[in-house]
Amino acid sequence: xxxRVRKAAHVLERLGLGMAGASCGLFVAVxxxxxxxxxxxxxxxxxxxxxxxxxxxxxxxxxxxxxxxPNGQRGGSGGKIDTAEFLSAAGTFLATLTAFLSxxxxxxxxxxxxxxxxxxxxxxxxxxxMQIVAGVVxxxxx
Length: 142
Known about the structure:
Elements: H1 2-35, H2 42-59, H3 83-107, H4 114-140
């Protein structure tokens, strides 16, 4: 019974992360779409939301490398940087920063220069791609 409850809690947590990612994608898409006419479509909104949902679902809470060796010794990861953990952290920071900036632009009704809007869009795409790569790497390593 305890296993089922823990599994259900984990699934709910992952779904919540996916919904948070979709929300962040929506904020970025609304900001970018309101500044760049070619990106004012429902398809763009949906793609941004799906990308955010996948990135946050896979890229947050990734399995980490062990710090202990097989005999309980420290340094089981060989002193290497955990690439998946780094990509997850950097990607999450970048994606949420761009979403935060987008919300600020929307709420304050600002009209930033197009370069800032493109920078926000690129930051979002790079951040979400880092999360997706981190999630895949963390789940496929042996």
